[in-house]
Amino acid sequence: MKTLHNNYCNSKQGYLPLFLSDCLDLLDPVLTFDRLIGGIDLNKYLTDIPEYTTGRLRYNPVNMLKTVLFGFMTSGYCSLRELEDNCKVNIRFMYLMDHQTPSYRTFGYFINEILQDKIESIFNDINHAIFNEEHVDLQHLYIDGSKFEANANKYTWVWKKATEKFRYKLYEKITAEIEEINAEIAWSGVQITTNKNPDVNFEVHDGITYTLYDYLQEGIIDISVVRTPLRLDEVESVILHEEPMIAVSNPAMSENETDSLALTDLVHKPLILYRRYEKLIMDAFHAQNLVPEVFCLCDDARGATLWVKEGLATAIFPQSMQPLCEGLTCQVLDEVDLMTKILLIWKKERKPSALVQEFMKVCLK
């Protein structure tokens, strides 16, 4: 008699664990990545997502952002199709997306429409999180000077003469960059030179006063040159220079040809105010019981000068912006309340290093 064996089980049946995190090693990169990114407020970059009141629920935008960042972290470059495929078959991406599988079109819309103008800010926040988490020393900058081809192997090499040729070209570019920086900050009386300390590397951050103030508080920079008005309760400061405001107008519209003006001369003229100095200027008018006619508030001096050239209004700028006003009439505002100060600031209760103190001495000369 022949015995028949029937198999009534399915080898593809479900089994424990139910959580994807249990399938990952404790030191898996995706868990470290998720923990680090979880400490950053990502929602501030996702506030302008249009709200849909009908249709299916949207994918979690925080999960989408994590998935995009992790894709580029693991591959250096990750196409939209690869992101879509990884969410279907790669357990790490499935963990980040909570088993959801957006299409490549969804990823494309998210990157181009939501993240396009926020990438640099996200990059900065991630760097700050890494610096704080790993206690990275920001006092020294190390540059890898190795020269390898992209797809290096034992049959490829880089010619020594070519390396030396491009090294000298790099020195020329660095010199030109330093000269350009010196030209930009010439108004402050500070000049960067590498003759005295050739082994010292400088890292220069450019930004508005409030950005530089934040960099100083976060320890990204040691010292900064800023302009008032600015709160000084958390920093030490010395005055480098004081300068007045100027009234910039179209030569054809200028009624007073003197070198200086008073606020009373501007009361009945439409004015363009630099937004950062709005309170300072308005307080100066109100202190004299004057009500100015504000034509526009702006953040860009170059755009404001175009309106001045058209004769639409008179602009009020710090005197250091006069080089941008070529062909226009610039008159100093003879008002004590409108004097601004160029300050050298450093963090309070933090003793400057010897090199920083030497830099301060150069500035104070």
Short description:
This protein is α/β, with parallel strands linked by helices and 365 residues long.
What's the arrangement of secondary structure elements?
Layout: H1 29-38, H2 61-75, H3 80-89, H4 91-97, H5 104-114, H6 119-134, H7 160-184, H8 209-217, E1 224-227, E2 235-243, E3 245-249, E4 260-261, E5 270-274, H9 278-287, E6 293-298, H10 301-309, E7 314-318, E8 329-333, E9 340-347, H11 354-364
Parallel strand pairs: 4-8, 5-6, 5-7
Antiparallel strand pairs: 1-9, 2-9, 3-7, 3-8
Structure in words:
- α9 links the parallel β5 and β6.
- The chain is of the alpha/beta class and 365 residues long.
- Helices cover 36% and strands 13% of the residues.
- The model has no long low-confidence stretch (mean pLDDT 79).
- α3 (80-89) crosses α4 and α3 (80-89) crosses α5.
- It has helices at 29-38, 61-75, 80-89, 91-97, 104-114, 119-134, 160-184, 209-217, 278-287, 301-309, 354-364, and strands at 224-227, 235-243, 245-249, 260-261, 270-274, 293-298, 314-318, 329-333, 340-347.
- The strands form 2 sheets. It has a 6-stranded mixed beta sheet with strand order 4-8-3-7-5-6, covered by helices on one side. Strands 1-9-2 form a 3-stranded antiparallel beta sheet, sandwiched between helices.
In this structure, how is the largest beta sheet organized? 6 strands, mixed
**Helical proportion, percent range:** 25-40%
Number of strands: 9
Strand order, biggest sheet?
4-8-3-7-5-6
Please indicate the percent range of residues in DSSP E strands (runs of 2 or more).
Answer: 5-15%
Q: Would you identify the regions where 5 or more consecutive residues have pLDDT less than 50?
A: none
What structural category arises from helix and sheet content? Answer: alpha/beta
The N- and C-terminal alpha carbons lie at a distance of 110 Å
**Shape field:** elongated
Mean pLDDT: 79
Order of helices and strands: HHHHHHHHEEEEEHEHEEEH
Radius of gyration: 30 Å
Number of helices: 11
